[in-house]
Amino acid sequence: MSRAQQDALSRTALGVFRLNGQFLAVSEKLAEPAGLTAAWWQVLGAVLREPLPVAGIARAMGITRQSVQRIADLLVREGLAAYEPNPAHRRAKLLTPTEAGRTAIRRIDPGHAELAALLQRELGGQEAFDETVRVLDRLSAALEAISAHVRDPQDR
User: Fold this and answer.
1) Does the pLDDT value for residue 28 go beyond 70?
2) Hey, what domains does the chain have and what are their CATH numbers?
3) What is the pTM of this model?
């Protein structure tokens, strides 16, 4: 690997880490009036269209199953989500939002729409916004494709 490649990888990683922090901060602000945290919003959002098992949510979000399980249990305890039987797997129940959970998500929609409009304008329009999404998707797919080739530190 050349020094230029390493530098590009480092700049990319630092940029993504910074973006993650920025998205979490703005998400916390948007979610707070609805009585949610960014993490609760993220997990509820993952099951709005269809119920999913915790492992499926974790895969979609790229985080650990244990993290999602902890949040899912909190959402159920707060009455914002419920577990329902999974016909495909007896032990892996499906998480689904309750009406209270859907109502909380709807409370976020105005702020979410405003943020999307501001971000679109700041990026220079819808075409630029769409290109940003494509680049991030491409980066994610590339990392997924090569992740099997990255050695585990314990294997060295």
Assistant:
1) yes
2) 3-147 (1.10.10.10)
3) 0.84
